[in-house]
Amino acid sequence: MAKRYFSSSDEEDLATDSKHAPLKSKTKRKPTGHWSQGLLKSMENPDTVVKSDEKCVMINDMYPKARHHYLILPRENISGISSLGKQNLELLHHLLKFGQDYVKTEHSNDDTLIPDYPQFKYGYHAIPSMNRLHMHVISCDFDSPSLKNKKHWNSFTTDFFIDAARLIKMVEEKGRVVIDKEYYESLLKKNLSCHVCRREQRNMPTLKSHIRTHFKK
């Protein structure tokens, strides 16, 4: 049986999709290690690694929320954005440039699905699902069967997704990342709305159908 490697989005699916919810059992199961360690395994798996250098590793998100969805993890053991300080500024700049350089090299000739709209976003979830620092590099088409519900959508299209440059500026000015947990959790419950025109949509199927109206024909 092939080994399975978890990604940040994988953990979200397990938490929000009932068919993957853990079943209660009277039989004690042998511990297999905390799911947060899955990213560490993916960093060592040649099938998931996209690119790497001496400071970081880029991997494919196992449950991509768009046509292109990568995670960049530092080799340095940093638990998450709440552990960041000014001592990490050089690394944060490196992660952002690493992602931007990859997109420029590998996706510069991609057709822009949505005219006059950024092709990619670079950033961090305000309240990360996994206990390991990782920056998302995700294309803004959000065209993926793995993008299933309101939580998935709002985690990438509201301020819950903290732009990498904004996070760097926060650390530069405040010396740390300041998170209002109640505020950011409320963003995940917002009504569904198109990330391009901000028109509200009734449900995920209608939202996905609507987004395609913005794509180039």
Automatic annotation (TrEMBL):
Its main location: nucleus. This is HIT domain-containing protein. Residues 21-32 have a biased composition (Basic residues). One of its GO terms (molecular function) is double-stranded RNA binding. The gene is 100640625. The lineage of its organism: Eukaryota, Metazoa, Porifera, Demospongiae, Heteroscleromorpha. Residues 36-147 form the HIT domain. One of its GO terms (biological process) is single strand break repair. Keywords: DNA damage, DNA repair, DNA-binding, Metal-binding, Nucleus, Zinc. Coiled coil: none annotated. GO terms for cellular component: nucleus. It is found in: Nucleus. The keyword Plastid does not apply. Residues 1-44 are annotated as: Disordered. It holds the Pfam family zf-C2HE.
